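re the bet — no i am not wrong, look at it urself. input seq straight from the record:
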Amino acid sequence: MREVVKAVIHKDHKYLLQLRDNDPAISYPDTWSLFGGEVDEGESFEEALKRELEEELSWCPDRLICLAKSSNKKVNCNITFYLVHCEVPKESLVLGEGQDMDWYTLEEIISLLNTPDLINNIINKAARHLGR
């Protein structure tokens, strides 16, 4: 199974989501999801996530906190989720992949129609971890 890393990026009681490309060749096309991607051979999970965030947002966080691990049999991968605090101004993040990005509260994420079920669960876990 492929190894995938995802970032639960938070700032000011909101979470950053990416609207994935509308490409049927990718998993979960045209849905709001978390930033991240596949771990390349020889990379640690943390190195992979930092590389992915640099590619997708032109930003590399200083600190990653492992939040949860999950298996997704639908797309044949293991996913490791990291909690990441965004310490830079929101305007300095540059979308390098996907159709769009936006910041959402927990309540707004729950009301989004086009998110994989796992996203709501992991954001809820992150909110509990943060004491929200």
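see?? Residues 45-57 form the longest helix (13 residues). told u. also The chain is about 25% helix and 35% strand. so pay up
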